[in-house]
């Protein structure tokens, strides 16, 4: 694209993109993104997809195992609380009204 005399090119300090500013319009008319260094190659796409699928499967299996043991932990806590409640004597709560 031909550059006009009223256009200046300024690098963006944040992302490194080249901003083309038209001084007559007082606005950005174009920006060019810089090439990413970490851009994956198309030949590696299958490997990346397989790694992500394995990561998702591992996270799912971990959540399934945690959910299976969750019920056991809750039932143990309930039994312990029930045992503790049966060991304590039953007393009538003291109310402010009873103190008068």
Share of residues in strands: 15-25%
Radius of gyration: 34 Å
What pattern of helices and strands is seen along the backbone? EEEH
Strand tally: 3
Percent helix: 40-55%
C-alpha end-to-end distance: 94 Å
* Low-pLDDT sequence parts: none
- State the shape: elongated
Task: Count every helix, treating DSSP H or I runs of 4 or more residues as helices.
Answer: 1
Please give the order of strands in the largest beta sheet. 1-2-3
Number of domains: 2
Largest sheet: 3 strands, antiparallel
Mean pLDDT comes to 86
The computed structural class is alpha+beta
Keywords:
alpha+beta; single chain; 100 residues
Question: Would you kindly provide a written description of the structure presented here, covering whatever features stand out?
Answer:
The chain has 100 residues and is of the alpha+beta class. It folds into two domains: 1-34, no CATH class; 46-86. The chain is built from one helix and three strands, in the order βββα. It has one helix at residues 45-87; strands at residues 7-11, 18-22, 27-32. A hairpin with a 6-residue loop joins strand 1 and strand 2 (18-22).
């Amino acid at each position: 694209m031909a550059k006009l005399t009223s256009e200046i090119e300024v690098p963006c300090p944040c992302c490194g993109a080249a901003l083309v500013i038209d001084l007559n319009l007082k606005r950005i008319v174009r920006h060019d993104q810089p090439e990413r260094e970490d851009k994956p190659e198309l030949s590696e796409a299958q490997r990346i997809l397989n790694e992500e699928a394995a990561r998702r499967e591992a996270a799912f299996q971990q959540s399934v195992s945690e959910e299976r043991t969750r019920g056991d932990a809750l039932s143990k806590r309930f039994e312990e609380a029930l045992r503790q409640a049966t060991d304590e004597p039953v007393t009538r709560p003291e109310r402010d009204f009873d103190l008068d």
